[in-house]
What we know:
This protein is mainly α.
Amino acid sequence: MQSYTKSRPRQSKSILMQKKLQKDSILNEYDLDGDDTITDEELRQAKEIKETETKLRKNLAQLRMARYTLIGMGVFTVAMFIIPIQRVEALADISNLFYISGAGIVGTYMGTSAYMAKNGVK
């Protein structure tokens, strides 16, 4: 004799996983509300914070590079007026390369900043 049982349809439940921490764990920085439990939401927020920090550090490094290049070009230009003419003639070929590379660095920074601002990329 066969027995038939009614099978219930499976219910999918969305369960938030919670992770308990050991004392002085390296993961304590991800516990944003300080309850010694890391939820998936806290992990997501911590990931977003890390990504934002990384982007900000990258943008700051690019900004510094462009600023120092402009400062270097200005100092070099002023120095060319102070240096005797024989040395200026000797540095003429190198100075052209210096100005072209400096302008490339600054132009690339300004172009990518404008492109990212236009397209909403931050």
